[in-house]
C-alpha cells in the first residue's frame, strides 16, 4: 500500500517544528545555566554546595578549586545577625 506523497509534507513540517522547539528549549536552559546542563534531583547537600559556590564565585553553576577563599567570603554568610532591641 503506497503512502500518498501529500502526507509527507505535513509530517516533515511537524517533525521540523518539534526539532526546532526542542533545540531552542535546550539552548535556553543551557544559556540560563551558563553553558552547563541543568541539575536535577538536588537534595539538601547539593543546594548548600550550590549556595557556597555562588558565594565563592558569584555563580551557582561554577565551582572554585582555589585552596584559599577570596577576602569577602568570610563575611558573605547566608546567616545574618540583626541588632534588634527586645
Structure write-up:
The mean pLDDT is about 80. The chain is about 45% helix and about 0% strand. The protein has a domain at about 5-55. With about 90 residues, the chain is mostly helical. It is rod-shaped, with a radius of gyration of 24 Å. It is a single-pass membrane protein. Belongs to the complex I NDUFA1 subunit family. One of its GO terms (cellular component) is mitochondrial inner membrane.
Query: Which bin fits the share of residues in helices?
Result: 40-55%
Termini Cα gap:
86 Å
Order of helices and strands: HH
Query: How many strands in all?
Result: 0
Q: Which shape, going by the Cα principal axes?
A: rod-shaped
Mean pLDDT metric: 82
Structural class category = mainly alpha
Biggest sheet layout: none
Radius of gyration: 24 Å
Q: Count the helices. How many? A: 2
Instruction: Tell me the fraction of residues in β-strands, as a range.
Output: under 5%
Q: Which stretches of 5+ consecutive residues score pLDDT under 50?
A: none
Q: What can be said about this structure in brief?
A:
The protein has 86 residues and is mostly helical. Helix content is 45%, strand content 0%.
What layout of secondary structure does this protein have?
Blueprint: H1 8-32, H2 44-57
InterPro entries: NADH_Ub_cplx-1_asu_su-1
Keywords: Electron transport, Membrane, Mitochondrion, Mitochondrion inner membrane, Respiratory chain, Transmembrane, Transmembrane helix, Transport
Family: Belongs to the complex I NDUFA1 subunit family.
Amino acid at each position: 500500500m503506497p503512502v500518498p506523497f501529500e502526507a509527507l509534507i505535513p509530517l516533515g513540517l511537524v517533525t521540523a517544528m518539534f526539532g526546532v522547539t526542542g533545540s531552542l528549549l535546550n539552548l535556553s536552559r543551557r544559556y540560563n545555566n551558563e553553558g552547563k546542563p541543568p541539575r536535577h534531583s538536588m537534595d539538601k547537600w547539593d543546594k548548600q554546595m550550590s549556595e557556597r559556590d555562588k558565594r565563592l564565585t558569584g555563580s551557582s553553576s561554577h565551582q572554585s578549586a582555589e585552596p584559599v577563599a577570596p577576602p569577602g567570603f568570610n563575611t558573605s554568610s547566608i546567616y545574618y545577625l540583626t541588632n534588634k532591641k527586645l
